[in-house]
Amino acid sequence: MLTQKQQTITLINGKGSIVTRRSAGLPALIIALLSAQPELFDGAIDQLQNIATSTAVKPQAAAMDLPPVHAMNCLKAIFASSRLGQQSEKHIVGVMKVAAQCLESDV
User: Which residues contact 48 (CB under 8 A, 6 or more apart)?
Assistant: First the structure.
């Protein structure tokens, strides 16, 4: 059975082809999960950074798989959340590096 954290990461990867405003509520889901279970915070940040730096797949069709975009939206929401401010402080440099790397993305 998958944990909540695993289910959320699966959602990010599985819903990658959904191109919606604010990543279809995934950032709010992540914030709620991390607020309720702060012990998952560091691992979640690491996984979101890994997803954000992974290559987005650009298939022939009009749809695109965009888990990296959803992961970046989740990271942005985490750093904007006042509830997660103290925990996110130590990850600022790493996430800023990821954000800079993502600026070079072709997608």
Answer: 12, 30, 71, 74, 75, 78
